[in-house]
Amino acid sequence: MRYQISGKQIDIGDALQTHVKTELTQTIEKYSQRPTDAVIVFSRNGHEYVCEATVHLSTGLTATARAAANEIYAALDNCIEKMDKQLRRHKRRLRDHHRDRAEPVEFAGAPMYVLAAYEDGEDAEPDTLQPMIIAEMETKIPSLSVGEAVMQMELSNAPVLVFRNEKHGGVNVVHRRDDGNVGWIDPVNAV
């Protein structure tokens, strides 16, 4: 497994890197046999250290965790504890509901744009109706079942996930609703 351990304006020493690799490897090996890579970023937020970890699994799913504490090792331990909980839930769901997936998740490329917000206030009209694009990136759209899409959204702590439905090949969206439930948008089945 590849590790990318970095710090935002923090010097990450060899001892911390070794500790990250040891602890994260032990946690991941309990639940997943084939992780591909992990990205761990340390930063500071006021007096607290923040640890953000992202683990990419060979099935195409991504698990993320974020934790903060007054000490950098405590932030790491809290983050790994959250990752452990997510991976345990993921494995339980796979065992209970998704035994039939024999092939890895397929991904399709798609352009992604970040649009600039208007700064003149809400009532002001823009000069043109065309939005100003401030960033253009490539993103991946996985082919998943609805259950797997909900699981991926929860694992990555994302508010929304766009995916290609394996059942009919159409683009679908699952999202976290304000009431705590998960919404599913399926344009193919629209009346």
TrEMBL record:
Compartment(s): Cytoplasm
Coiled coil: 73-100
InterPro entries found in the cross-reference section: HPF/YfiA_ribosome-assoc, HPF_long/plastid, RHF-like, RHF/RaiA, Ribosom_S30AE_C, Ribosom_S30AE_C_sf
Annotated signal sequence range: none
Main location: cytoplasm
Keyword DNA repair tagged: no
This protein's UniProt keywords: Coiled coil, Cytoplasm, Translation regulation
Sequence ranges assigned to domain Sigma 54 modulation/S30EA ribosomal protein C-terminal in this UniProt record: 130-183
Superkingdom classification of source: Bacteria
CDD domains according to UniProt: RaiA
Record-linked NCBIfam families: yfiA
Role, per record: Required for dimerization of active 70S ribosomes into 100S ribosomes in stationary phase; 100S ribosomes are translationally inactive and sometimes present during exponential growth.
Subunit structure comment from the entry: Associates exclusively with 100S ribosomes, which are dimers of 70S ribosomes.
Protein family per UniProt: Belongs to the HPF/YfiA ribosome-associated protein family. Long HPF subfamily.
Protein name in UniProt: Ribosome hibernation promoting factor
Gene: raiA
